[in-house]
Amino acid sequence: MVLPSRRDLAVRALLARHPLTDDQPLAALLDLQGVRDAANDLHAAFDEVTAPGRPVLHTFAVKAGSLVPVLRLLDGFGIGCEVASPGELALARAAGLAADRIVLDSPAKTPAELAEALALGIALNADNPQELARLDALVGAGREPAGPVGLRVNPQLGGGTIDAMSTATATSKFGVALGDPGARDWVVRACTDRPWLTRLHCHVGSQGMALERMAAGVRATYELAEEINAAAGRHQIDTLDIGGGLPVNFGSDEVKPTFREYARLLRRTVPGLFDGRYGLVTEFGRSLLAKSGFILARVEYTKSAGGRPIAVTHAGAQVAVRTVFVPESWPIRVAAYHADGLPKQDGPQVRQDVAGPCCFAGDLVARDRPLPRLVPGDLVALLDTGAYYFSNPFGYNALPRPGVYGYSADGEGPAVLTTLRRPQTVAELVAEYGGDC
Ligand SMILES: *Cc1c(COP(=O)(O)O)cnc(C)c1O
Hints:
The protein is of the alpha/beta class. The chain has helices at residues 6-17, 32-49, 68-76, 86-94, 111-120, 129-140, 183-192, 211-232, 259-269, 286-289, 321-325, 426-435, and strands at residues 26-31, 56-61, 80-83, 102-104, 123-126, 149-154, 176-177, 197-201, 239-241, 279-284, 293-305, 308-313, 334-337, 349-355, 364-372, 379-383, 403-408, 416-421. The protein folds into 2 domains: 3-31 and 291-424, Lyase, Ornithine Decarboxylase, Chain A, domain 1; 32-289, TIM Barrel. α2 runs parallel beside α9 (259-269), α7 packs across α8 (211-232) and α8 packs across α9. The chain starts with 5 loop residues before the first helix and ends with a helix.
């Protein structure tokens, strides 16, 4: 007999505790043990390569899973927060994160955000010369930074397989483009002129980026730090923030690449970064959560058009925006369950479309996908959707945000569920859409 997987146990527990009803025909689930394992893997990978005693601050890119209980959980696993807006900072603070475990990045920080970060001691990475001038004004007015300040650079190494995720192209909007005429000298002088500028930051890209290119970005940033420190005649740049971006395998249950492979590649390609002279900050998002989450939705109708079977479900663009709009770059696996929560693996596979509830033709989460023939009442699970899916909803057709539940399943007895976000009520939805104006 095959033992039920943690995911299968979570499906059963959900149906027992929060059945998929007409009002709540979909829900999202997060495997809390999977998140802990990912956090432990990250710590272990960098512990193995860093010199003893060197500080490493791992932060979680809040945009990848912006739910307060998730941030609190990760903080408990020793992972801080990388925030990129006042809202994300508010989420991190609501989760109870200490200022020295938060890093602020954003290409559009307002004067108020800068002043607040300096006052609270939140580390921040300036994006461009104008932002640095604003910081100069604040520092000149006596607002000495209470936390570390860095400068984001773009080593312009080129993109990965997904343009929208590639932040180190020649014309990327992020950071100071190092290869542009005069830019490198400007950065060196900008740092040596400002003793409070002690960090460099780079984030080469997210999903679709080869590990070698990510490592090349870190290497370019390290070489710049060495150049600045030589020009300053002291160890002014003492920490590198190497961003996140470890890609996730959406094709199977296997975790690949791993944090360990990346950390070892970094040690091989940038050995000087690990000899004890530099502290490190990381900002992984997707790789910490993606494989631990899934969305479960009811099949409402099944039909056929032009010979193609179509299952109309309640999970579409409102929870899977990238997959729906850019399906070639963001394919996801779909698993089928019977209405009672047992896996549906029986019967011949039939190629079918899995559609969402939104009123536009492209609202499909899978096209022409071989699956057991779905019938109304069955459930579909959209796998590996723990990051950037249910936490980043798309407002369309006034569809409410689904509930999100954490689960713990040890294989003995039913899975235990914890609410991470209540399902949005219709009254809350009406208020969000101006009903209170
Ligand atoms: C989005 C982002 C990250 C996280 O990227 P992942 O691909 O989710 O790991 C890290 N740093 C910055 C600056 C980002 O914009």
